[in-house]
Design goal:
The chain is an alpha+beta fold. The protein has one domain: Nuclear Transport Factor 2, Chain: A (Roll), CATH 3.10.450. The chain contains five helices and six strands; from the N terminus they run ααββαββββαα. About 15% of the residues are buried.
């Protein structure tokens, strides 16, 4: 793992709802953040997005377990996100594997794109909708 990705992963993994003021150490002011559910531009909007994310869960953790940095200034981090939401899956822990593609310059990320299965993150755990998705998966699988 590159030194930069290793440090980013270590710093990101320590974030929680009380330390979001530290996002400016990781991200540039012009950050473009994209995941399967959202697209956010600018550090203030990213801070709002993360604040909402942390406010709606009772626990959230990222475990990083691999990286690839074959091009200078960009790389991939593989991770597993573990979280608890009181209205999803009866408050049990939900684990979702994913990957982040990061672009950085001058020690800060300016482009962050996450890849993960939105169904595994959210939809499969919503009452009624989860049953429909499970039925669809069985029919299509």
């Amino acid at each position: 793992m590159s030194d930069y990705l290793e440090q980013f992963a270590r710093d990101f993994a320590t974030l929680d709802k009380h330390s979001l003021h530290r996002l400016d150490r990781l991200y540039s002011d012009d950050i473009q953040f994209t995941d399967p559910l959202h697209e956010v531009r600018g550090l203030p909007r990213l801070q709002e997005y993360f604040a909402e994310l942390y406010a709606n869960v009772s626990e959230l953790r990222f475990d990083f377990h691999g990286a690839d940095c074959s091009v200078e200034g960009q790389g991939y981090l593989r991770w597993t996100m573990s979280y608890r939401h009181p209205r999803l899956k009866g408050g049990q822990m939900i684990r979702v594997p994913g990957c982040s593609h990061l672009h950085w310059r001058e020690g800060k990320v300016y482009r962050h794109r996450d890849y993960f299965d939105a169904g595994a993150l959210l939809y499969e755990h919503v009452p009624v909708l989860g049953s429909v998705i499970a039925w669809l998966k069985r029919r299509l699988g």
